[in-house]
Amino acid sequence: MVSHRRTVRHEPVPERHYSLLSSPKEKPHDDVREPDGPTVAPIPTSQHPLGVLTAFPHLRLREGASSLLDLPWELPLAEWHDDRFRDIPVGPSRHLVRFLEADDSTFALKEEPLDVAQREFAALRHLENEGLPAVSAVGLAEVHERGTAILVTDFLVHSLQYRRLLMRFPLGPGAYRDRLLDAMAWLLVDLHRAGLYWGDCSLANTLFRRDGDKIQAYLVDAETSEVHPGLSDGQRANDVEILVENVAFGLADLAAYQGRPDEFEQAITAAESVGDRYHAIWTKLHETPELRADDRHAVEARIRGLNDLGFSVDEVELEPAGNGRLRLKLAVTTRRFHARELERLTGISALENQARLLLNDLREYRAWLEWSEGRPLDGNAAQRWLREVFRPTTSRLAEVIGPHPDMVQAYCDLLEHKWLLSEEAHRDVGLEFALDSYLSLGAPAPERAGETEAPAAVRSR
Predict the structure, then answer these.
(1) Which tens digits make up the pLDDT trace of 289-311?
(2) What's the pTM value of the predicted model, to 2 decimals?
(3) What is the span of the domain harbouring residue 411?
């Protein structure tokens, strides 16, 4: 299944139970009043094709999804008729998936067996509370008479399916396929650290967003997922094995679709590398090196290394290891180190690697200001960069690409375009020159409909 999430900010959203009426064995009252809530009118029943009289389901809608209250939840999803439905290409799915627009939002609705939907809803809520990259579950309508439920998730804006992502860049192995494989490995590491066993990790069950000069993967199908306090080595190994097998199938399928059967062996090799990437990241996060008792620099270097990967360090623990040495243990958080710092300084909400690039640009601008003005700047450097660089630049970009694309990513694409031009010129060409050049090309990006070639800024680096 492919569904989508609307924002990248990882903040828990309150849940509101709008209509929790009768269970299958209870007869609805003529007038039902929720505690401290409005009177709810009698709920009609619907005659299922198999002759089962279906009452209004147990409906849970979270804040922001109240516009969905008037939908015919008591009916099977295939029988809904609404002019707000829209066609969005999706990959293969075990169950019916439909997309609906309401109040400037787009929701994905999927009907599946009751126990599967309940488990998926709980898994997605868990991942959101942990601040991890997954679509956001905003509703669940449980129809106990049919043993089915309709799961509602948010639409993930600026996202791409793996086929569309890889088909818009040079075919076969290369930097962009490596970024996608890195993204899959990072996603599985993130999920496992949160105690989630995926059970069906694959390219088809994932959506991707370009994240600066990298790619961020999002889980969009948690039908087979299980949440545990922690995962055993065996559970992790099994998930990695499933991932490798499914990635190999996905890449081979794409090669066949593009008429490149000679790349089947390469697809298998590339898929196997995902497991290696996963194990390298996992080892880096969980290693406990032994240090000299007086080597504080080694502790700082370890923390900075994790910060470079996007992790904040929540706790540093040093314990005696014998022979005058100490064992270092670091408790790390989710990968939002640069994103939190950028938002603190500028108010810009960005993905982790987008934030890393923007912070580098901000620091470069501050260094130039201090050199040109001959004095150290106080704490307003970030606001000057925001006012004098970022906002004017994104305004010019918006004139070409419109207001809806990911403007933070567009700025990152511009920075890479500037880097490539500077490499060719063997000098810094400057942001203004790079912007004029980039706009003359139409500020291309693979998210834009009709794009057939990768922008110069992301073809290779």
Answers:
(1) 888 877 878 888 888 888 888 88
(2) 0.79
(3) 337-459
